[in-house]
Amino acid sequence: MADASDLQTLYSPSSKTDLDIVAVHGLNGDALNTWTYTPKTGPPVMWLRDLLPTKLPNARVMTFQYDAGVFGSSAEGVRGNARKLVALLRDSREDEEDGAEGRPIVFVGHSLGGIIIKQALRVARQDHRTPGFSDISDSARGIVFLGTPHRGSDLAKWLGTLTAITSAAARTPNPAFVRTLQANSADLLKVSQDFQSLAKEYAVVSFYEEHINRVLGRLVVDKLSAVMGLPHEEVMPLGGDHQAMCRFVGPGDPRFNPVWRAIRRASKGRGCR
Known about the structure:
There is one protein chain. By secondary structure, this protein is of the alpha/beta class. The chain has a single domain (6-266), classed as Alpha/Beta hydrolase fold, catalytic domain (Rossmann fold, 3-Layer(aba) Sandwich), CATH 3.40.50. It is built from ten helices and nine strands. It has a seven-stranded mixed β-sheet with strand order 1-5-2-6-7-8-9, sandwiched between helices. The protein is globular. The chain starts with 5 loop residues before the first strand and ends in a 7-residue tail after the last helix. It is found in: Endoplasmic reticulum; Membrane; Mitochondrion.
């Protein structure tokens, strides 16, 4: 696993790079396992590294690691981690020999990761005087959301989710994220309001989970919460429960096709800049 905060490059084109793809995991996930399907036999499939480059060979693929553990000790919430994401992405683009200023960016967020992406774009726009931040804001073209709870969820539902998935009910979940993910929480409302004025500048694709979580007997993020309701938002269901929707078994997985195509469409932006 990566350090507490890190931006890992999973794939770099051998020739010219014409797109940066940045994936951000969700609550209790990490930069690698969130996106990895592990079969009973055979090698694991990390689709960002193993599948996506076959479809978008000129794209650099990265994944952001932050402390999103259910019982993590980090005091950083959405805003702190959003700023880290922008700073690390800026540094990565500055370190390239030929520079990457102006190269299009597409963000892919699972669950809480989508909330962090929205705030990161706000930070990049608002703090345009910070060196390199304006490039992130100006270069972003689109976002692909996978089960992102834009409207949050009931606290009891989230606490039930956390304890059921981790089987550690005696421990207290990290309040920095749990408070944000409550339905109608002040933090989540503020993030949504901050992003509303920027949303029209990006291509937006929102996937919502089709299948209930077997442990909980319900959806973790329902369609109402997973869809922002933007006039230009593309909305699609995706097979799998909340965890499985961002893992694909291989190139023949029919669920992979709409996701990589959504990333490609998002890379073209909205054409309204």
